[in-house]
Amino acid sequence: MATSRSYYSLHPPKEYVVTESTDFYRVEATDLDATETTGYAYAVDLDVDGSSLPDDARVHALPDLPAHDRESLLGAVGDPHLLHAPHYSFSPVFAYEHEGLRDRSMFVPETDGRHLRWNDVLLRLVFDERRTVEITSTTVSTELVAESPEAFFSHVRGERGTVLDPLTDRQRDVVAQAIEGTYTECRPYSDAFGGLRGQLSDEGGRHHALARYDGDWYFVHLSR
Fold this sequence. Notes:
By secondary structure, the protein is of the alpha+beta class.
């Protein structure tokens, strides 16, 4: 169990993780003790042309930033590989409830702009606005659920699996199209598709991770 406190709460993107030893863990995050403070939001220009900068422009390297500023940037980006993705954008917020962290930040209070080199990407950060945000303590806990891929499959199947039955001919056609690739239907859903979505969702509205159809198990992905 670990606890962090920041504007960017630590919420793992996946419900389960696997270690190098093939132990499978369930990961759960809980937010506690929220406090309001002032956050400083910045707009970001990605892939700035370094040759266009004036000679006296100062470019900061990510490792040279204070640790709490680096953590804020990482929290805003999530996956640094996205910096290379087409049309990707992000707007970091620097928010610190402790005066010492605010005083050591390069972005609090607001500055006219900063150039930052993140590996091979040159960024320009420009102050956008002040806003009221919440600083939250987030506790992340793990639970061992399986010690092999086979045991993990059995665990997920028992906890998040369902059997598609009975199905109409139209519903079987929908499932066949989904298995071959993707089936898409817009609202209002047909009776056939609406009934399938009902079978593929639990009482809390969360979709089942696995579905058994004609003797085989399939992973399920439902998007709205």
